[in-house]
């Protein structure tokens, strides 16, 4: 259960729908991740794309994480939020000239370069500005991340990274590029990965390609293994914090690295997902011929994951301790049949005005919201603003 009795009373007074962020859980999650990484000398860049809410970012920055960005605006946001430029990386297959120039001017740590042509453009723009661009080469290692096909990124058929068949030419372009310095190799094979064997296979590929470069006389300072650690969407209360120890331990054991080599990670979801819930109110209940429906005031406009990826989010009543007795399809107000948060969700018998929590919505929730149907801007509430104690 997300809230105790007095918290429930206060929540009832608030205008719905809103994202509720548990800052205590966020801090605890960040601290556990940082401890497990620091112990092994690993560096973690937080992937802003998972959630760039100001309040969350300032907590993440204060805990000593770097920033992994995928647009010029994210780079600028990270800088505005106090992330040191030399702890910012910039990834993405389609960096525009404007975004590259901004990042060169800000002096970010590295570009994660996704194609040979991009390497040439960065070299040219850095030359014009009279600077040297630090780059990591993103290699597509052809690994199946065993996750939803929309969020797998490291297969030959995916658009990401340089295919291994082109590495010879990439290496020669880098050697000739006067305004580019290769600092690292970059990999990212997908998101919401819960099978640790995927990361083990990734280590094997990283070792292989690192050796390939070193055999050709190119020293690699940074091994960036991306993000992708999954969270428990089924049981957020039982597993509110991912097992960072087990995750980092895989890389500690299976990644070959020499003393001068740094290992970088780009975690998004694992750091923020469980700290966020979408709180929504039942507008109407109705029973069709085959179904019972709860029509709630949040829709795919606030949380798009179920409509977009058929993603599962646990749905529970906020202001009740009763046992589930009815199976409801929980649907939003948007004029699309895909605007459904869950089918046949067991819930206590509900009525107009009841509050519902859609859990594990802190990552890829608020940031993917839209104004479709001219909906309101997304609202959010932080645990400390309400003086609420943590849900743990
Ligand atoms: N690094 C790169 C290069 C990425 O593409 C991503 C995520 C990350 C790091 C962070 O991955 P994470 O640790 O959060 O798994 N909207 C989808 C997820 C898309 C992930 C895109 N890339 C969802 O709602 O599940």
From TrEMBL:
Lineage, top ranks: Bacteria, Pseudomonadati, Bacteroidota, Sphingobacteriia, Sphingobacteriales
Key words, A-Z: Amino-acid biosynthesis, Decarboxylase, Lyase, Lysine biosynthesis, Pyridoxal phosphate
Pathway named in the protein's UniProt entry: Amino-acid biosynthesis; L-lysine biosynthesis via DAP pathway; L-lysine from DL-2,6-diaminopimelate: step 1/1
Biological process according to GO: lysine biosynthetic process via diaminopimelate
Stated family: Belongs to the Orn/Lys/Arg decarboxylase class-II family. LysA subfamily.
Domain Orn/DAP/Arg decarboxylase 2 C-terminal per the UniProt entry, residue ranges: 18-362
Active site (catalytic residues): 335
Alphabetized SUPFAM superfamilies for the sequence: Alanine racemase C-terminal domain-like, PLP-binding barrel
UniProt: substrate binding residues: 269, 305, 309, 336, 364
GO molecular function ontology, one term from the record: diaminopimelate decarboxylase activity
Cofactor: pyridoxal 5'-phosphate
Pfam families cross-referenced by the UniProt entry: Orn_Arg_deC_N, Orn_DAP_Arg_deC
UniProt name for this protein: Diaminopimelate decarboxylase
EC number: 4.1.1.20
Orn/DAP/Arg decarboxylase 2 N-terminal domain residues: 27-273
Catalyzed reaction equations: meso-2,6-diaminopimelate + H(+) = L-lysine + CO2
Job description of the protein: Specifically catalyzes the decarboxylation of meso-diaminopimelate (meso-DAP) to L-lysine.
Sites of N6-(pyridoxal phosphate)lysine modification: 49
Complex formation: Homodimer.
Chain residues that bind pyridoxal 5'-phosphate: 228, 266-269, 364
Organism of origin: Sphingobacterium phlebotomi
InterPro entries in alphabetical order: Ala_racemase/Decarboxylase_C (IPR009006), DAP_deCOOHase_LysA (IPR002986), De-COase2_C (IPR022643), De-COase2_CS (IPR022657), De-COase2_N (IPR022644), De-COase2_pyr-phos_BS (IPR022653), Orn/DAP/Arg_de-COase (IPR000183), PLP-binding_barrel (IPR029066)
């Amino acid at each position: 259960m997300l809230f105790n009795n007095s918290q429930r009373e206060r929540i009832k007074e608030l205008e719905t729908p809103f994202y509720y962020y548990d800052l205590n859980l966020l801090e605890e999650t960040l601290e556990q991740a940082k401890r497990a990484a620091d112990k092994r000398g690993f560096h973690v860049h937080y992937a802003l794309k998972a959630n760039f809410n100001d309040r969350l970012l300032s907590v993440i920055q204060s805990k000593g994480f770097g920033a992994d960005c995928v647009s010029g605006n994210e780079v600028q946001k990270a800088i505005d939020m106090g992330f040191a430029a030399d702890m910012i990386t910039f990834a993405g297959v389609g960096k525009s000239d404007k975004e590259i120039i901004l990042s060169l001017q800000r002096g970010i740590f590295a570009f994660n370069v996704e194609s040979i042509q991009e390497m040439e453009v960065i070299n040219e723009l850095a030359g014009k500005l009279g600077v040297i661009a630090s780059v990591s080469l993103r290699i597509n290692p052809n690994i199946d991340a065993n996750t939803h096909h929309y969020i797998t990124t490291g297969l030959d058929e995916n658009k990401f990274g340089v295919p291994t068949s082109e590495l010879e030419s990439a290496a020669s372009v880098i050697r000739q590029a006067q305004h580019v310095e290769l600092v690292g190799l970059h990999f990212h094979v997908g998101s919401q990965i819960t099978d640790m064997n995927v990361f083990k296979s990734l280590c094997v590929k990283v070792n292989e390609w690192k050796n390939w470069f070193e055999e050709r006389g190119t020293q690699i300072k940074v091994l960036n293994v991306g993000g992708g650690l999954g969270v428990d969407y089924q049981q957020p209360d039982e597993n509110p914090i991912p097992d960072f120890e087990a995750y980092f331990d895989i890389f500690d054991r299976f990644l070959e690295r020499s003393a001068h080599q740094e290992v970088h990670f780009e975690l998004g979801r694992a750091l923020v997902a469980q700290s966020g819930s979408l709180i929504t109110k039942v507008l109407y209940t109705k029973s069709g011929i085959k179904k019972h429906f709860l029509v709630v005031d949040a829709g795919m406009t606030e949380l798009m994951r179920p409509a977009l990826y058929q993603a599962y989010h646990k749905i529970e009543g906020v202001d009740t301790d009763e046992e589930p007795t009815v199976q409801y399809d929980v649907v939003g107000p948007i004029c699309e049949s895909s605007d459904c948060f869950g089918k046949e969700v067991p819930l206590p018998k509900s009525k107009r005005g009841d509050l519902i929590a859609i859990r594990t919505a802190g990552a890829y929730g608020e940031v993917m919201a839209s104004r479709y149907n001219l909906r309101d801007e997304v609202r959010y509430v932080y645990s400390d603003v309400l003086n609420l104690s943590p849900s743990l």
